[in-house]
Specification:
Layout (H helix, E strand, L loop, with lengths): L7 H14 L18 H12 L5 H13 L3 E4 L2 E4 L1 H9 L8 H13 L11 H15 L14
Antiparallel strand pairs: 1-2
């Protein structure tokens, strides 16, 4: 694989951003979603659900640089947002089974966007660690309540 080729991790982060932001949900209009996008913890959560692993800081940083540089994603004040070009790529990709979506998107990136861009963007270790921690804390199930304390039963 060429050094400048789109990587699987680029597609993994892109698909995670799309799903976390709700961009793929029922072909929802762009203006019906939260305009600021999603936080890193949401992206990591979705990525974990897609691949049963939390992306490393370097993977996120590299993918976001490439996606931003190619005009598919925007990042502002810690919020990640799919651009209209990214939305178009997502909506016009070939449909495949959910298990192969990342592979399909990697192929689409390679065919439609050639060489990935490279924007200046840095993900500090502490921000990545804080987002991982936030995701892990959110994913701990709440304790079940006993029905004994309820009235009327």
């Amino acid at each position: 694989m060429a050094v400048d080729a789109w990587r699987w991790t680029d597609a993994w982060i892109f698909v995670s951003l799309v799903i976390a932001s709700g961009a793929g949900r029922h072909r929802r209009a762009v203006d019906s979603r939260r305009p600021e996008g999603v936080r890193l913890a949401d992206v990591l959560s979705t990525a974990d659900h897609l691949n049963q692993s939390i992306p490393e800081r370097e993977d996120v940083e590299t993918a976001v640089r490439r996606l931003v540089g190619s005009g598919l994603v925007r990042v502002s004040d810690g919020w990640f947002e799919i651009t209209p070009d990214g939305e178009r790529l997502w909506r016009t990709r070939p449909r495949a089974g959910f298990g192969t979506t990342v592979d399909t998107v990697q192929g689409v990136l390679a065919r439609r966007h050639g060489t990935p861009g490279n924007a200046e963007w840095h993900l500090p270790e502490e921000e990545h660690a804080a987002a991982v921690q936030e995701y892990l804390v959110r994913s701990i199930p709440a304790p079940r309540r006993s029905p004994e304390g309820r009235s009327g039963r």
